[in-house]
Amino acid sequence: MGLPSIIITLAENQIDLASEFERYGAAVVAGHTGRWSDDDMDHILSSMTPDRLIKMSDAAIKMVDGQGCSRVADAIITRVPKSRRE
User: Lesser CB count within 10 Å: N end or C end of the chain?
Assistant: First the structure.
């Protein structure tokens, strides 16, 4: 999709994935809900130069191809017996 992101995780199970997006340069993790401040967000927003946003967008495009829904649908369909699909 190519959308640069600032991520605030809401649940513990989101932290690893958010960190991966940040590691690849597609996002900035502001922190976990309740563990970041307005100053943290001000710092992040002030660091979002046009060049950085372009780099983040490029990294996001490389990470997400937009075909996930089709892959999930295909995986579900292959698990349903043919007799039930007709």
Answer: C
Instruction: Give the model confidence (pLDDT) of 27-36 as tens digits.
Output: 999 999 888 8
Q: Which long-range contacts (CB under 8 A, 24 or more apart) does 55-60 make?
A: 55/25, 56/4, 56/5, 56/25, 56/26, 56/27, 56/28, 57/2, 57/3, 57/4, 58/2, 59/24, 59/25, 59/26, 60/1, 60/2, 60/3, 60/4, 60/5, 60/21, 60/26, 60/27
Put simply, whether the predicted model's pTM sits higher than 0.70 gets the answer: yes
Distance CA 31, CA 37 (A): 9
- CB-CB contact of 43 with 31 (8 Å): no
- The HSE-up count of residue 28 (CA atoms within 13 Å, CB side) is 17
Chain centroid offset of residue 58 CA: 13
Report how far residue 65's alpha carbon sits from residue 17's, in angstroms, rounded to the nearest whole number.
16
